[in-house]
Amino acid sequence: MQKKEMAGLMVIAAGCLWGVIGLFSRKLSAVGFDAVQITALRSLVTAVGLFLLLFCKDRKLCRIDWKDLWMFLGTGICSIAGFNIFYFVTISITTLSVAAILLYTAPFFVMVLSAVLFHEKFTAQKVKGLVFALAGCICTTGIFSGSIHVTALGILTGVASGFCYALYSIFGKFALKKYTSETVTLYTFLMASAAMLPLSHPADMFSLAVSDFSLTGGILLLGLVCTLLPFLLYTRGLSRMDSGKASVLAFAEPLTATLMGVVAFGEVPDGFGWLGVALLFGALVLLQMPQKQRKTGKIPNIL
């Protein structure tokens, strides 16, 4: 298997792992954690877990040149912390479906910024994949099933969440020219933790987090399996492929989240929802299909 195909599979796997976050976040929300606290816990567990791993494996991976700190301020604060804050604000003043759609404007920003900064080609394949994926995301949000409430401020904060989400792929691309995916992920979440913890009422958050063993276990799984592992996979994949293509392949996340809703919570989509699933899957197949196979019409094995 070629490196680019393997990189694509890494990004898709990352999206799938992100897509099961709902299994844990719903339980945490039910016992009293708010969205900012959940994000802070995810970031902290990821940072601490990866630091311990790298400290035992190779301490050199924990070192950076402080002149490069701007890269990790970008991935950690501008991107991870920024998109979460804007996303939560958008949810509070619009609806979850509108917030999700505006968040997934991120690949558009990635493609434009990557073309300017990294001279990546704006190919027909990427554009088609983005159109398929964005249309699929719109269908799976359930926006067609009822009325929506949208304000100018909601659109502004929603687009801001998408822009901040896109910045991980941009700043991450700069960082990967000098550092490994492990180092990039470590300092990203150290910065994100530093930004999110002051906003999360830490005393109350930690008191609740250790109040029940199963709850603590769920937080650890959320941080290690649904955050640390997928970010390592995404960042490793990003180092081997175009940022724009990687950002669209990450649409495996809403696809997985929709299917997980069916399996775990009995949330069966309507006709538009299933159309969205098909469009999202089609986007992943299209973007994983090598040039020769696209010309001959052969479908690659992406699973």
Automatic annotation (TrEMBL):
Listed transmembrane segments: 7-24, 36-56, 68-89, 95-118, 130-148, 154-172, 184-201, 213-234, 246-265, 271-289
Q: What is this protein called?
A: Threonine/homoserine efflux transporter RhtA
The family database entries (PROSITE patterns) matched by this protein are listed as: PROKAR_LIPOPROTEIN (PS51257)
Q: Which organism is it from?
A: Anaerotignum lactatifermentans DSM 14214
Query: Is Ribosomal protein tagged as a keyword?
Result: no
- Family stated for the protein in its record: Belongs to the EamA transporter family.
Gene Ontology CC entries for this record: membrane
InterPro entries attached to this UniProt entry:
EamA_dom, EmrE-like
Q: Which residues form the EamA domain?
A: 9-140, 153-287
The positions making up the signal sequence are: none
Keywords tagged on the record: Membrane, Transmembrane, Transmembrane helix
Q: Which domain of life is it from?
A: Bacteria
